């Protein structure tokens, strides 16, 4: 099929992709539809066209078009399992709704000036070989997307609690930068092992930088403290041939110029916290890509969910990657009896090929 126009025969199921393990604590195989449609090109080929800033055959729908690598050999990922656990630095995470959180009230690091006292993770001691076997037989027709949690400020929050982390940026920025330099080495080590053991095509680096209504920091703080370290990680990703996506929730669109300067390929954003998204895409879309996660009200009816998907595709017309899930972390819409997967693909195809 070489025609760019949508053909209903593309909705035929010609097999199933394998989803391995968990994803953010949710059973990946059970929760995410693995049907393989009869698409004109593979999801990976479509994604690569999109990452070249060219018109894709359909707007990428990341939950279905990527294979997520979320290795529980990394304690950060393990700590996000429903019951919680210890993260890579030994911080305790406890069960919460809708996802685990750091056990409050007893921060592991109370003063950033004492960061050298931390016991740093021994990445080489983790059983990468066994984890590699788990992901060894995945189909190569979807983009392999590795998840790196607790990037920079998120790590400070986990270690120090939010208030102490924010105060540290003001009272002792020198110690913060020294800590982040060491943390950058750790994050690059994770990135390198993702490439070595899973041959990832992309990493999603998590670091939330804002609240629902405003950013956490001034742009000067981002430029001085975070941009140089983020750039080192993005540069290493590019040296390895890996796409670098920054996941950053909150109203953080003022930082888009800094993301671009750091070499971020794509911003994975919280759509309901960043108004004027279409204008942002028009302004910056030739330099950085945008992927939105749409958090749906659990009370939505099937008709409301379908209407949102249709509105999305009609608005962004192929210049945007998207996914949707309910606020209670139910990734798969169909488990509620909603048949939206076919609609999402159909509208994503039509939007990219008007």
| CATH fold label | TIM Barrel
Mass-distribution shape? globular
- Provide the helix percentage: 25-40%
Largest sheet: 7 strands, parallel
| Average predicted local confidence, pLDDT | 92
The strand count comes to 14
Total count of domains: 1
Question: What is the CATH first-level class name?
Answer: Alpha Beta
Write up this protein.
By secondary structure, the protein is an alpha/beta fold. It has a single domain, classed as TIM Barrel (Alpha-Beta Barrel), CATH 3.20.20. 38% of the residues lie in helices and 17% in strands. Strand 2 and strand 3 (26-27) form a beta hairpin. The longest helix is centred in the middle third of the chain and has 26 residues, at 173-198. It is globular. The relative contact order is 0.13.
Helix/strand layout:
Blueprint: E1 13-16, E2 22-23, E3 26-27, H1 28-31, E4 35-37, H2 43-51, H3 62-65, E5 66-69, H4 75-78, E6 84-86, E7 92-94, E8 101-102, H5 128-134, E9 143-148, H6 153-160, H7 162-171, H8 173-198, E10 202-206, H9 219-239, E11 243-248, H10 256-262, E12 266-270, H11 277-284, E13 289-296, H12 302-316, E14 321-326, H13 341-352
Parallel strand pairs: 5-9, 9-10, 10-11, 11-12, 12-13, 13-14
Antiparallel strand pairs: 1-4, 2-3, 6-7, 7-8
Question: What would a concise description of this structure say?
Answer:
The protein is an alpha/beta fold and 354 residues long.
